[in-house]
Amino acid sequence: MKFIRVTVCLVLLSGSSLMTHAGLFDDEEARRAILDLRQRVESVRTGAEQGSGRVDGELVVLRKGVLDLQAQLDQLRSDMASLRGLNEQLTRDLSAVQQAQKSSLQTLDDRLKPLEPQRVTADGRDFLSHPSEKQAFESALSIFRSGEFLTSKTAFLEFLKRYPHSGYVPSALFWLGNAQYATRDYAAALVNFRALVASDPGHLRAPEAVLSIANCQTELKDTRGAKKTLEDLLKAYPTSEAASAAKERLSR
C-alpha cells in the first residue's frame, strides 16, 4: 500500500507539472493529456493492487500450509501419546501374564513333585522310587514288624505284583520270605529267599537269606541240603554275621 501511495504521488506531481504548462496546449490536447494521465494512474493503481493481491494470496497459502503442518504435528503427538500408553498397557499385561504363567507352573510343579521319582535308600542301596511305591513297601514292612505276618505276607505279594522292577524288590523278597517262614509256609519262603540270592547275591540281606534257606530246609527235614547250604554260606560270605551262625550250627 505504501508503494501504491508513492506511485500515485509521483504521477500526480507529473500531472501538476503538465497542468503548469497547460497553457502551451490547446483544449483538445489538454483533454487528451488528462485522460492519458488518468489511465496511467489507474494502470499503476491496478498493478499495485494486483501485486499486493498476489502477495496476500501467497501469504494466505503459506499460513494455511503452516496451520496444516501444525495440525498434522499435533495429530502425530496425539498418536504418539496413544501408542506410548498402549505400549505401557501391553507391557503391564505381558508382565501380568508372565507372572500368572510362572505361578501356574509353580503350582503344577508342586502338584507333580510328590508324584516324581525320588532317591531313597533301603538296605544299603540307593535308587529312585515313586512316592506311592515307597509308601507301599514301608506299609507292608510296618505290618510285618507289628507281628501281623499273614497280612504282611499279602501286602508284600501285592507290592511285588505292582512294582516288579522296583529297587525295593530284593528287600521285599527277604521280608516276604520271613513272613512266610513265620506262618510256617516253608516251601514258599524257600523259593523267595533263593530268588533274592539268585537275583542280587551282593545285596545286604543275601547272607541272611542263605541262612534262612538252611532254616527252611531244616524245617522241611532236608538236613543234608541244609548242611550244604551252610557250607556254601561260609564260602560265599565268610565275614558276615550269618557265617558265624552257620559255623555254630555246623559244629552242632
Task: Give a quick summary of the entry.
This protein has 252 residues and is mainly alpha-helical. The chain is 80% helix and 4% strand.
SSE blueprint:
Elements: H1 2-20, H2 27-112, E1 118-122, E2 125-129, H3 131-145, H4 149-162, H5 169-182, H6 186-199, H7 206-219, H8 223-236, H9 241-251
Antiparallel strand pairs: 1-2
If you had to describe this structure to a student in words, what would you say it looks like?
By secondary structure, the chain is mainly alpha-helical. The chain folds into two domains: 2-109; 118-251, Serine Threonine Protein Phosphatase 5, Tetratricopeptide repeat (Alpha Horseshoe). It is 80% helix and 4% strand. Strands 1-2 form a two-stranded antiparallel sheet. Strand 1 and strand 2 (125-129) form a beta hairpin. It is rod-shaped, with a radius of gyration of 59 Å.
